[in-house]
């Protein structure tokens, strides 16, 4: 149940990462996007917590998690998630990642494949130019502006967050080709991610499926939660069913 959870913080270097855990067993870990928190997943928590264990994590510098002393990066955040999993005694999990959260899940799959049972990747991109120019160009301008005032802590940390959009995630073709984890890529037909970029990623990852939401934008979890939740549920049911039969 959504109101039945445990919570806490895990130390990751100088940062403290906040998590909530709903239920016991092989979990579904939810990773939010840039400048968000795990609150993004409210409708998914209502949908999934009655049927499977769920863990939400606020990324470093987001939500209730502190920033620490290291510069934000997708690689660092991916390692943070592994640290939280180790601290909680979780060897393997399925992931739902949205936007930067999807990119973080991809990084985990590249560097820690033994920890990933399956991935649902919503609005993922592997390089900055996978974003449409009307998003990428303003992000570049905003990043350049914030860097001018980076001697102030607030502006420095905001610049670091925009850097994740402007300069990340830089996932190589070789890393994509090496992924052998059941994966579902979801994007909107009106997403800020170029549709050809999404299709290319899905084609490169073996054992992957692609679902394009008609008239959907980037934040599908809020725009079309009922449709997305059912698609994700069916994918996860198939993954867990196949796992039992192996």
Any overview of this molecule?
The protein is of the alpha/beta class and 246 residues long. The protein has 9 helices and 8 strands. The protein has helices at residues 42-48, 74-87, 100-111, 133-148, 153-166, 173-178, 195-204, 220-223, 225-245; strands spanning 6-12, 15-22, 28-31, 54-57, 93-98, 116-122, 183-188, 208-213. Strands 1-2-4-3-5-6-7-8 form an 8-stranded mixed β-sheet, sandwiched between helices. α3 (100-111) links the parallel β5 (93-98) and β6 (116-122). The longest helix is centred in the last third of the chain and has 21 residues, at 225-245. It is globular and about 55 Å long. It starts with 5 loop residues before the first strand and ends with a helix. The mean pLDDT is 95.
Task: Report a brief summary of the structure.
The protein is of the alpha/beta class and 246 residues long. It contains nine helices and eight strands.
């Amino acid at each position: 149940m959504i109101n039945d959870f445990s919570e806490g913080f895990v130390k990751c270097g100088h940062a403290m990462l906040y998590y909530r855990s709903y239920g016991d067993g092989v979990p579904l870990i939810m990773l939010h996007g840039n400048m968000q928190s795990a609150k993004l997943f409210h409708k998914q928590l209502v949908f999934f917590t009655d049927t499977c264990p769920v863990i939400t994590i606020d990324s470093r510098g987001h939500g209730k998690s502190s920033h620490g002393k290291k510069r934000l990066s997708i690689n660092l955040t991916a390692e943070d998630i592994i640290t939280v999993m180790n601290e909680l005694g979780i060897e393997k999990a399925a992931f739902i990642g949205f936007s930067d959260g999807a990119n973080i899940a991809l990084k985990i799959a590249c560097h820690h494949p033994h920890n990933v049972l399956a991935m649902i990747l919503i609005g993922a991109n592997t390089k900055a130019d996978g974003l449409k120019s009307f998003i990428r160009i303003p992000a570049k301008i905003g990043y350049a502006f914030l860097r001018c005032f980076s001697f102030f802590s607030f502006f420095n940390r905001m610049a670091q967050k925009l850097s994740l959009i402007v300069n990340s995630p830089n996932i190589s073709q070789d890393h994509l080709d090496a992924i052998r984890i059941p994966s579902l890529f979801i994007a909107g037909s009106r997403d800020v991610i170029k549709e050809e970029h999404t299709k290319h990623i899905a084609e490169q990852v073996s054992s992957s499926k692609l679902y394009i939401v008609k008239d959907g934008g980037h934040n599908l979890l809020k725009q079309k939660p009922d449709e997305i939740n059912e698609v994700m549920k069916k994918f996860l049911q198939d993954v867990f069913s196949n796992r039992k039969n192996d």
